[in-house]
Specification:
five-stranded antiparallel beta sheet, 7 helices, 17% strand
Length: 391
């Protein structure tokens, strides 16, 4: 959503309203995971006990603590912490800070916005504050589930009242001073009005008297716009680069490689010669298998045929030698189904018809005598004798 004055790239639902009818411009938070990406480059996310995923700042001093690099600014929502740290837009206005010996100070993300999440102390010429614990909630009447005794003395930092409006630095605050803590009292005037957290804190009139300065109230909108502008600009610059990166990562499709095919019956050695010649697979005309191609030479393409081909001859059988096919014999034509081969029988020679003449009678008599002689010489078959019965 964009603001009325400046165009900001935002994400999530509108932030908590602080007495205005339109959502505030800048970064908007909907769920806790919205913090993961923008805070990751400036620290590390760790899992801590029942809190789950928490964040720790990177590149800070060993004795670093929250709410010690910035200044306090009065707004219509109470005292607003203006942080000099790049992650302050999130960690001081959303969520809570806590401490343990293993991780030191760590931040627990939450989605409710506030000018600051601190517990106030005042008295004895000092003003102090400490981060509210994650378990503390705020209702219309003020703190709920809050136990002041649970906040360790080392969590508090103090400054003199007259220096409260000056820039706050680790070198200008008093840390873990039980004497000062015993002279101060809790200021429990933080509350929720119209779904807005009001961080009242020290009274404006008292701070003006002790500091001798007139306090000018600044709209929350202006402070948030200034703090969140670098985050919004970074997200705006990152979005086009991500699109460009994705477009570059998309590679054009690679055309399929088609190997040239030789004509049937060509010498197989031609194929290897073609591969060595480096002829493109998608050449406009097929290669001539009859031409021997040497290395470094280009094969001659077969000219296009404009006339229809003649009728192909009958299938030929390959000769005994696989290298020479010039003396192939035509294959036998298979018989038709309707034709049947009948085996031929030998025919007896026809007897010559006797010619009428003088010797016809003599020849006939001799023929009869020869026939009778043959019959006498050829033994006749004896009839089969039945076997005698066995005794």
């Amino acid at each position: 959503m964009c603001g009325a004055m400046l165009a900001y790239t935002t994400y999530g639902q509108p932030s908590v309203s602080v007495g205005v009818s339109v959502p505030l411009p800048g970064v908007e938070i909907r769920v806790e995971s919205d913090f993961y990406e923008p805070l990751a480059p400036q620290g590390e996310w760790v899992v801590i006990g029942s809190y789950g995923r928490c964040w720790r700042p990177g590149h800070v001093a060993r004795d670093w603590r929250p709410y010690c690099n910035g200044n306090w600014q009065r707004t219509e929502a109470g005292w607003y912490w203006v942080s000099d740290e790049p992650w302050g837009w999130a960690t001081y206005h959303y969520g809570r800070w806590d401490f343990n010996d293993q991780y030191g100070w760590y931040w627990v993300p939450q989605t409710q916005w506030a000018p600051a999440w601190v517990s106030w102390h005042e008295g004895g010429g000092y003003v102090g504050w400490a981060p509210l614990q994650p378990s503390v909630t705020i209702s219309v009447s003020g703190y709920a589930g809050f136990n002041q005794a649970r906040i360790a003395p080392r969590a508090f930092v103090f400054v003199e009242q007259r220096r409260f409006l000056e820039p706050i630095r680790p070198t200008t605050v008093v840390v873990n001073n039980t004497t000062i803590i015993n002279k101060t009292v809790v200021i429990n005037n933080t509350r929720v009005v119209n779904n807005t957290v009001i961080n009242e804190g020290p009274k404006t009139q008292v701070m003006e008297q002790v500091s001798g300065r007139k306090i000018q109230e600044v709209p929350v909108r202006d402070l948030r716009r200034k703090q969140e502008a670098p985050v919004v600009a970074a997200r705006t610059q990152t979005a086009p680069s991500n699109i460009a990166t994705k477009q570059q990562s998309i590679q054009p499709p690679v055309p399929a490689v088609v190997e040239p095919q030789l004509k049937k019956g060509a010498n197989p050695s031609v194929q290897s010669q073609i591969e060595k010649s480096g002829v493109a697979a998608n050449a406009p005309a097929p290669l001539n298998p009859a031409v021997r191609v040497r290395e470094g030479e280009t094969a001659t393409p077969i000219p296009a045929q404009t006339e229809p081909r003649a009728q192909q001859p009958a299938t030929v059988k390959e000769s005994a030698s696989p290298k020479d096919t010039r003396y192939a014999e035509p294959a036998e034509k298979p018989p038709k189904k309707s034709e049947k081969k009948v085996p031929s029988k030998p025919l007896r020679p026809a007897r010559e018809k006797p010619v009428a003449g003088e010797n016809n009678g003599k020849a006939a008599a001799e023929q009869k005598q020869n026939q009778k002689a043959e019959e006498r010489e050829t033994p006749r078959e004896k009839p089969a004798v039945p076997p005698s019965p066995s005794p």
